[in-house]
Specification:
Layout: E1 32-35, H1 37-43, H2 51-64, E2 68-72, H3 78-89, E3 98-104, H4 107-116, E4 122-130, H5 133-140, H6 144-164, E5 168-176, H7 183-197, E6 205-211, H8 218-231, E7 238-244, H9 251-260, E8 265-268, H10 282-290, H11 303-314, H12 335-350, H13 385-396, H14 402-419, H15 425-437, E9 443-450, E10 457-464, E11 467-474, H16 478-490, E12 495-503, E13 512-520, E14 523-531, H17 533-546
Helix pairs in contact: 2-11, 4-6, 6-7, 8-9, 12-13, 13-14, 14-15, 16-17
The protein binds acetyl coenzyme *A and 3-methyl-2-oxobutanoic acid.
Domain Pyruvate carboxyltransferase: 31-304
Binding site for Mg(2+): 40, 243, 245, 279
Pathway: Amino-acid biosynthesis; L-leucine biosynthesis; L-leucine from 3-methyl-2-oxobutanoate: step 1/4
């Protein structure tokens, strides 16, 4: 039964509430990013990555620029253990990258973890135990003191074992299930763990506060983090880290507010892959900074390729609307958005604008490996002339007169509406060709010539009813002469109101596209031609005349 009365708040407020974080505007200093793709991300995959896939993922993370990577839960499986041995034994960890391994605060798992990292020049050992009221009562059946003791015993053992290995071992502690834990109690455990580790400014420890399950709104998390930030022991010797999940859909806000509140490090995954609704998406966080002019110290210039590789390794598909990385996030289908984007892009080009400020597109798709041809504007029945004109111009170099573009807009919209689907740029070009270039049901142009070089006297060869006919006309110029020949032969009068023409390429051999609009009985009829300059304009006129209703 759908019954909200079954639920109650499952979070705790800190004993004193302060909201200094609200006064800060945005993330100005890049936090330390720690990727947990190979651990928390992997933990959430129906088919966890195999060794080769993990090694490829590690390399991908290194290439993006991560300097801290949680590579494994070595106590979990042989594959996790082997990953560490492979990375360490084959010297695959760059000097500026620190690996992290996670362990429950349980003796045999801690010992196995240290076996896994033997020989690593540098590593973070991440110790955790669950501290929430619900888990103390239901899972462990232990008191606050007893659960705290699990953490302290773990901290002692981790310190002992670290002293026995050669590498530079840093410590991290997480009060797992923090959102369901009394905040003062969580702080007390963290400070007691720090009392054992005795971090120094030169050898800092990490205290990592997760929203293991996101139970509250982001401002609650920020207030909790601010409280911990202000009351943490050894503060100058501790890196305060956060690890947001996304159960309420606020992982990104949790992370941003958490950093405003004093966190210096953020754990998360690419594309937000992780337990249940995921970990915080580090791409979104980094790109949020980037799009305000800050260097996120991670490079997503090839995000399209990163996504494809990630999808292959994890067998998870990134949603089309995932911020920054989804297939459709730069794409406008709707007419008014397309109109503004197309005008914004034109303005940008014509005015040589340096900063990015195109309406409806927060970052330049090019920066993330996307393109303007296929990513920005796509056409369906919600689209308008602006978008359709943009597709023709960007993909085919065809610029239509305003009113013709409008007519083309309605024709294209109708096709999409009737077929009930999106139209590709090729299909849009096809619609244009069919309706404005090839539309000659009543007569077709075969040939033309001007008498003895005089452009004011034209002879046209037309095909009508399967027969070639020759017609002549005189005028003030070439097109006028041709138009008069048509008018006289068909005994029809119209006004040639619009005539535009442009080259379809940069060199002198490039074809030309002509557009002609003729007014007849209060209506505009349009035609286009693609050929050499003269033939293109005659073709355009022939199409426009073929549209006149009295010709039928
Ligand atoms: C929020 C997070 O993401 S935390 C990370 C979670 N990640 C994972 O769990 C992935 C890897 N985990 C694993 O492979 C396994 O769970 C292992 C290898 C760690 C442990 O496996 P098992 O020993 O079979 O235990 P399992 O996980 O099924 O059960 C947990 C048992 O450990 C106990 N336990 C859990 N944490 C602790 C702790 N810190 N100290 C003592 N006991 C603990 C539980 O109470 C339970 O005890 P029970 O056997 O008496 O019922
Ligand atoms: C172990 C911790 C950091 C964790 O993964 C979580 O609480 O989500």
């Amino acid at each position: 039964m759908f019954n909200h009365q079954k639920y109650d708040k499952q979070y705790y407020l800190p004993p004193t509430l302060s909201y200094d974080w609200v006064k800060k505007e945005t993330l100005e200093k890049t936090p330390i990013w720690c990727s947990v793709d190979l651990r928390d991300g992997n933990q959430a995959l129906p088919i966890p990555m195999n060794l080769e896939e993990k090694l490829e993922m590690f390399q991908l993370l290194v290439d993006i620029g991560f300097k801290e990577i949680e590579v494994a839960f070595p106590g979990a499986s042989d594959t996790e253990f082997k990953l560490l041995r492979t990375l360490i034994d084959h010297h695959m960890i760059p000097d500026d990258v620190t690996i992290m391994v996670i362990t429950q605060a349980r003796e045999h798992i801690i010992r196995r973890t240290f076996e896994a990292i033997q020989g690593a020049p540098k590593a973070i050992v991440h110790l955790y135990n669950s501290t929430s009221e619900v888990q103390r009562r239901q899972v462990f059946k232990k008191s606050q003191e007893e659960v705290k003791q699990i953490a302290l015993d773990g901290a002692v053992l981790v310190k002992e074992l670290a002293d026995e290995v050669e590498g530079d071992i840093h410590f991290q502690y997480s009060p797992e299930s923090f959102p369901g834990t009394e905040v003062e109690y969580a702080l007390d455990i963290c400070n007691s763990v720090l009392d054992i580790w005795k971090p120094t400014a030169g050898h800092k420890a990490i205290i990592n506060i997760p929203t293991t399950v996101e139970y509250a709104m982001p401002h609650i998390y920020a207030s909790q983090i601010e409280y911990i930030h202000k009351n943490l022991a050894y503060r100058d010797s501790v890196i305060l880290s956060i690890h947001p999940h996304n159960d309420r859909g606020c992982g990104v806000s949790d992370a941003e507010f958490g950093v405003l509140a004093g966190a210096e490090r953020v754990e998360g995954t690419l594309f937000g892959i992780g337990e249940r609704t995921g970990n915080v998406d580090l791409i979104t966080l980094a790109m949020n900074m980037y799009s305000q002019g800050y260097n996120p110290a991670l490079n997503f210039g090839n995000l399209e390729a990163i996504r494809k590789e990630y999808e292959g390794l994890t067998r998870i598909t990134v949603p089309d609307r995932q911020p920054y990385s989804g297939d459709l996030v730069f794409t406008a289908f709707s007419g008014s958005h397309q109109d503004a984007i197309s005008k914004g892009m034109k303005y940008r080009k014509e005015n040589n604008v340096k900063k990015w400020e195109v309406p409806y597109i927060p970052v330049d798709p090019i920066d993330l490996g996307r393109n303007y041809q296929t990513d920005v504007i796509r056409i369906n029945s919600q689209s308008g002339k602006g978008g359709i004109g943009y597709i023709l111009e960007t993909n085919y170099g065809i610029k239509l007169p305003y009113k013709m573009n409008e007519a083309m807009g309605y024709v294209t919209k109708k096709v999409s509406d009737e077929t009930h689907r999106e139209l590709s740029s090729e299909e849009i070009y096809h619609v244009f060709k069919e309706h404005y270039v090839d539309f000659q049901p009543y007569f077709q142009l075969v040939d033309y010539q001007f008498n003895k070089g005089d452009k004011r006297e034209a002879t046209l060869t037309l095909l009508k009813d399967n027969q070639e006919i020759e017609i002549q006309g005189k005028g003030t110029g070439s097109l006028d002469a041709i138009s008069n020949a048509i008018k006289v032969y068909f005994d029809i009068d119209y006004a040639l109101e619009v005539y535009e023409q442009h080259s379809l390429g940069k060199d002198s051999f490039a074809e030309s596209c002509a557009q002609i609009g003729i007014a007849y009985k209060g209506q505009m009829c349009w035609g286009a031609g693609i050929d050499n300059i003269m033939r293109a304009s005659i073709q355009a006129l022939v199409v426009a005349v073929n549209r006149l209703e009295d010709l039928k």
